[in-house]
Amino acid sequence: MSSQNLFFALDLGSHSVKGALANIDTKSRVVDVIAKAEARSQGIRRGIIFDVEDASRAIGDVLRQLEESSKKEINQVNILLGGPCLETRFAKGSILTSRPDEEIGQEDERRIQETIETLPTPQNRTVLHVIPQYYLIDDIDKVKQVVGMRGSRLTLEATVIDVFSQAVLGMNKSLGIVGLHSGLIAANPLATAKALVPKRDREQGVCAIDFGAETTSITVFEEDNLSYLSVIPLGSQNITNDIANALQVHFDTAERIKLGFGQAMASKISKKEEIEMSRFAEGEESTVSKKYLAEIIEARVSEILEFVNAELKKLGKAGKLPGGAVIYGGGANLPHLNQLVKKELKLSVRKANFDHLRNYFPEDVSPQFFSVYGLILWQMESVFGSRTDSFGSGLSGIFKKVWDIFVP
Questions:
Q1: Which ranges carry the SHS2 domain (predicted)?
Q2: Among 22, 275, 317, 381, fewest CB within 10 Å belongs to which?
């Protein structure tokens, strides 16, 4: 039997749909990314498919590019889900250990996670991940690894990520139209941040912030565990909207102005610097102050960071994460954003990269593909047995039902 596992990772972003095809060798533990593709998003808003036909065209475009580049037929896709359809909550479950000698085995570990998965969930929501925080043995000892230890009662305290069920249904219908069925499903902020943030930082306490097109995602790690995940329904597209309204220009023109001259801190710019609007709009003879443009941008980014800080305050971690903040996403490319984030959150700040994963990915990884590479790494950890979270059994049930409905 071949040790090669073909893995198709897909990120359904609001700005673009990205995909990568990789061979994961289970014997040598080597990954080879053999093809990448990107297509403009259609029918996707804030990570949720609202137009199945349009979304299927974007997915189909990426699929065709990958099949043509790799000369391989692809039938299964592994998906990243993002946006406000994701929520986190804390859960606790207990079981009696199964062996007469009270030694805890892998079966007990599996049963306790299933206990968490089957706890009552909010209406129209389905468990996506159960991520252990720690175990209690006979309600006394807090431990990370329990297999091989002894006790009559095993308790698990976990972080649960669940997803709006309709988001899954729409996703599967779009996949069915292009002849794909879903395999691994992962929360985008979790899989991406886990890959981008080195383990040492996750152990000390760190906040990863994804400045996306329509959303800003926050992922907090402590003691190498997910502590919190939240998605704010504001992103860099809101900055573009503000520029369009303030300068009375078309949205596309505002986007070009933002990319060409935008900066995140007005204090870094001289009042004398100006933008010739004729460069962006025919017949336009006026000029705009670069400082004024930066004031527009800084106001919106500061608002987004206020929401981020509010989430950290809920955890009691505002200004109290030794690993600081790691920023990524399209919006993270704004000049001086690092300084503004540091000022607003009172944390050290750095841009994310894949440099610490050169042993897996020796080539440079473009920022727009951070998420799909993160999902590839997520799968590698699962194949090699270095991750202990689980996927909700309820989600698998939904996939089967949806597949039966939409695929003859």
A1: 7-196
A2: 381
**Helices of type H across 71-186:** 106-117, 165-177
Q: Which of 374, 331, 399 is nearest to 163 (CA)?
A: 399
pLDDT higher than threshold 70 for residue 3? no
CB 31 within 8 A of CB 376: yes
Q: In 10 A of CB 306, how many CB atoms?
A: 12
Instruction: Output the pLDDT for position 117.
Output: 87
CATH superfamily membership of 198-351: ATPase, nucleotide binding domain (3.30.420.40)
Q: What is the pLDDT of residue 141?
A: 72
Neighbours of 268 (CB within 10 A): 15
Place of tokens 């919190």: 228
Decide: helix, strand or coil at residue 177. Answer: helix
The set of residues, in sequence order, having a beta carbon less than 8 Å from that of 283 and lying 6+ positions away, is none
Query: Residues 155-164: pLDDT tens digits?
Result: 999 999 999 9
Give the residue from 277, 274, 293 showing the smallest Cα distance to 336.
Answer: 293
Question: In terms of C-beta density within 10 A (0-12 exposed, 13-18 middle, 19 or more buried), how is residue 54 classed?
Answer: middle
pLDDT tens, residue by residue, 64-91:
999 999 999 999 999 999 999 999 999 9
Contact indicator for 157, 92 with CB cutoff of 8 Å: yes
Q: How far apart are CA 99 and CA 103, in angstroms?
A: 6
Give percent above pLDDT 90 in the chain.
71
Residue recorded with tokens 């106001």: 299
Give the chain's largest Cα–Cα span: 85
Torsion (CA) 338, 340, 343, 347 in degrees, nearest 10: -30
- Sequence letter at residue 163: V
Under CATH, what is the fold of the domain 86-164?
Answer: Dna Ligase; domain 1 (3.30.1490)
Predicted structure pTM score: 0.88
Q: What's the CATH number of domain 4-84+166-188+355-406, 3.40.50.1950, 1.10.630.10, 3.30.420.40, 3.90.1170.50?
A: 3.30.420.40
